[in-house]
Amino acid sequence: MQCQILSIGDELLIGDTVNTNASWMARELTEIGVEVNRIYTIKDDLAGIKEIVNEALSSADVVFTTGGLGPTHDDMTKQAIAELLDSELVVHEPTLDFIKKIFKERNIPFSKSNYHQAEVIEGCEVLFNEQGTAPAMWFDHEGALLVVLPGVPYEMKHLMNHHILPRLKKKIGNKTYRASHYMLTAGIGESTLSDEIIGDLNPFLNGNDISLAYLPSPEGTRIRIRGQASTEQKLKDQMETLIGHIKKQADGFIVGEGKQIRLAEKVGESLQEVGLKIAVAESCTGGSVANSLTDIPGSSNYFKGGIIAYENEVKVNQLKVNANDLQQQGAVSKAVALQMAKGVAQQLNAHIGISTTGIAGPEGGTDKKPVGTVWIGFWSEDQHFAIRAQFTNDRLINKQRTTATALEMVRRILLDISEMPYGLKKQLA
Amino acid sequence: MQCQILSIGDELLIGDTVNTNASWMARELTEIGVEVNRIYTIKDDLAGIKEIVNEALSSADVVFTTGGLGPTHDDMTKQAIAELLDSELVVHEPTLDFIKKIFKERNIPFSKSNYHQAEVIEGCEVLFNEQGTAPAMWFDHEGALLVVLPGVPYEMKHLMNHHILPRLKKKIGNKTYRASHYMLTAGIGESTLSDEIIGDLNPFLNGNDISLAYLPSPEGTRIRIRGQASTEQKLKDQMETLIGHIKKQADGFIVGEGKQIRLAEKVGESLQEVGLKIAVAESCTGGSVANSLTDIPGSSNYFKGGIIAYENEVKVNQLKVNANDLQQQGAVSKAVALQMAKGVAQQLNAHIGISTTGIAGPEGGTDKKPVGTVWIGFWSEDQHFAIRAQFTNDRLINKQRTTATALEMVRRILLDISEMPYGLKKQLA
């Protein structure tokens, strides 16, 4: 089944809005087996909408439009499609009642122009939008399907998830079974992962039935495996064979499985599993590590807190770093990283303390310690070490990568994986 | 001058990548007066590329393509356009030398297939890409311009900024003068800002020559004013009249001016101006406030650090919050917010201490203190108060909004603006 997406809206063509609707739809449609072969982005323009919808209906099995269903004079979509299909606009009573009710609840006066919001094109099937005021419309047009959706992202997603995707899945039928599987890896570069760790996959990739993609992300490289087969069993076997191979090859680098999995989430799970609590002492990451950990609901179960020792005085006073060591070796040194990690664990009464100290940039680098130099410390009753990394000269990327490396370090320690991220060596006092 | 953009790449149609290139280009082009009237997103497909480029060249003054210039067998763009223009691919020697040099530096063996990366279409003007391996190509084709760009964002932006946009600006000539002006507001809702504070702008908006848009962002509402006129003076007058009016109406709510201005940046500037240092005590924001402040280069000039007192024990031990008050009134209370702010300022030896304590969610709410309840505290030698806000039930949005509100609170204090964000009242001990 082939489809085309038409994103309608002036704001998309002046760069005010990024077209996230189209890419979300493209991903969801691809997952259920509908191939997107073209995406058009055009203005709220009567002639343009008619032209493209007409063209698309003759080139694809399904055509989607998003946008242009609001009440302002800029919103052209309904009128354009009504004209194209030689039809009329009629008021949809349930939607009208719903809109009136919303306006009443919010104390907004209902005026005549608001009737337009409840209009639909005669001949369509109305798909009621519980999340907003614009209903979706579904048309069977001479063998092709036309689906008209609002442009507001959560409304469009609600309608797609509740109405459209299930219907299309049914239409595609059970002739083909599909599945996707996602894994997050961390602490290894993408090319090293694909070329050296995972290696040649040709024995597993059976033509178009199964595919593997490496998707970069700030935390690490995500691996996505997609498969399809004519029976559920065949699909299961194919997927499990390749997934099993990846897990065997990349064991230790795989943080977790699932589309939305996050490094901080898995670190949290591991801490909870062993009943340990962690505290963080941050300098160059300035709160980024704590922020990542606390983005995860339930983190209060294992996260004590942290000390952001941005000024050296704070390293000495709050973390009990030795003032002489600080002066002689500098804040960005093994000794200071080690002491920060131990200091925060002791001060905050945590089982594990980690630290970051480095030069985020863009200023502050020297020949010996250029921008991007970072020490990451670890303290527990069992181990006390620091690793030294070299990142880039971009401040925000340095914060991000140091944070991911520190979290990955903790994850590996908790799982007894001896190799540190990027093969960096544990350096003792 | 009208243009169309053709984004080429399979990954765009399976939702792996969001089309940020097209929206970036659309914004930059619109700013210099080139109107984007259509964006196509298509696969790496020979026939499709030829069809669309051909169609676009007959419908616009300038056609841009991005993507498909790599060395793999998926990359079709050069071949498609060569066929369409009835031309050949030839090796561009300077690019070949450059690629060989990069490969040598990175110790990557140079193979025959890498020659393809240095090929360009005969008849084009080559625009050398110092940021990557694929050069851009500029064609004058029967009165229309065709610009072929790589898909890698920083390479495309480099080529656009250094070669393409300046050339197009020159072509447009000085017949129309254009300008844009951006302002960030904070601590006020968008509708209140537009309806009550700024109000009716019809006297200022002169048809299409000047426009104003409200653009929501996590930190606040950005106002964008765009103008055009036939002379520089007329443009200047029009823009200054409207900008002056906005500044007068929205004085106090305007954080700063400029497209990329950030709240943390302005707070930092204000702190530096008065030579004061700040420390943060965070509970529910878990590091987000410190992280925002330290994203700004030079923040070590005014940011002492922070204490992330995620567990109550840390509030008592590190911030010297009174254990009885904590027990009786709870962590999410005025008393605790006040004490956290004072405690961190004293412990970290800062002029200003701010605090956040609340229920980020999704769990933890009660009838009296539902999810989204937040106290934000402020301490300095001059003032000591807390404000109470009520946000949503989304954890990440709560963290974000609490952070923005805390930063906006500081900004207003430093500028002697007595009203607090969202009209929240300062509550004393």
Automatic annotation (TrEMBL), chains A, B:
SUPFAM superfamilies: CinA-like, Molybdenum cofactor biosynthesis proteins. Residues 4-171 form the MoaB/Mog domain. It comes from the Bacteria. Belongs to the CinA family. PANTHER family: NICOTINAMIDE-NUCLEOTIDE AMIDOHYDROLASE PNCC, NMN AMIDOHYDROLASE-LIKE PROTEIN YFAY. This is CinA-like protein. It comes from Fodinibius salsisoli.
